[in-house]
Write a structure and sequence with these properties.
Distance between the termini: 183 Å
Shape: elongated
Largest sheet: none
Helix content: over 70%
CATH architecture of the domain at 213-267 and 278-348: Up-down Bundle
Low-confidence stretches: none
Number of strands: 0
Structural class: mainly alpha
CATH superfamily of the domain at 213-267 and 278-348: DksA, coiled-coil domain
Radius of gyration: 63 Å
Strand content: under 5%
CATH topology of the domain at 213-267 and 278-348: Four Helix Bundle (Hemerythrin (Met), subunit A)
Length: about 350
Amino acid sequence: MAVSKKKLALKKKLAQRKKLALKKKLDLRKKLALKKKLELQKKLAQKKKLELQKKLAQKKKLEIKKKLDLKKKLDLQKKLAQKKKLEIKKKLDLKKKLELQKKLELKIRAAKIKAIKRQRETEKRVALVARARAQKEKQKEAVRIAKERAKLKAQQAADRLALRLAKEKEKQDAKEAREAEKAAKLAAREAERLAEIESHRKPVAPPKPPIIKGMMQDGITPTKEFNFEFLLSQREMLLGERRNLLGQADRLESEANAIVENSEMGDVQFDDEGGEGDTMVVERERDLTLSASARQTVEEIDEALKRIETGDYGYSGRSGLPIPRERLKALPWTTELVQERAGGIGSY
């Protein structure tokens, strides 16, 4: 019996403990549920606050936007009002200008009418004076014609006399010309005879002196008489003159060709009555002659450049004597002295 009582008491204690544990679990669940509710409520309240803040911010933005829109409308109205004022002012200014222009035009018209009236009156006076002068001129012209007729008759008589004298003079001149021709033939024969005798007496040219040359430098061979600096300046001068002459020759040939093209197109009349054709032919021949002369000088310049390279520049091709620097500066492609050019020394 005692054992059964203990078991019952133990069972009761276990049952009580289970009840307490279950109660604790239920209380804990209630607390957790309550805690969840409170947290949810907090979250909802916070969410509501955020939504309210957003609504307030949007409301502020809308109010600011409305204010800005209102300000823009007011500014636009002010600008439109100012624009209207400016347009009205411009219209008034334009109206004033037009009125002033009309007044000026009326004044100008009135002045023109007055000037036309004065001009007509002046023209009438001038016409009257001109008629009077014309009558006087007619009278003078009649007197002059009578005088000229008398002079013409006298001139015709004088011309007949001069023609007779001229014919006599032509006969005399022809006679003198025949005599002069005979004398010229005799003089020519004598000159040929003397020239033949002189040709057999032609002197022998003396030997040319040797040229003392230095070492070549930059395509230039200096000599005793002409140093490197002088030859360098002469070469630059020759090259510049060569460029100028080539350009001149090309230009002249182009002009000559243009004359030919114009003549082929029929712009120029090349007949007995068209004097322009002869002029164009002469101009073309002149251009071609000048072009050929320029190209000939270019060839002489090329030979002078070769002489600078070989060390033969500045010496006479006849006597071998050095040419003065002044002459070389004036005519850098020359190959003879002034005396030789004139037929003096070295003209063998």
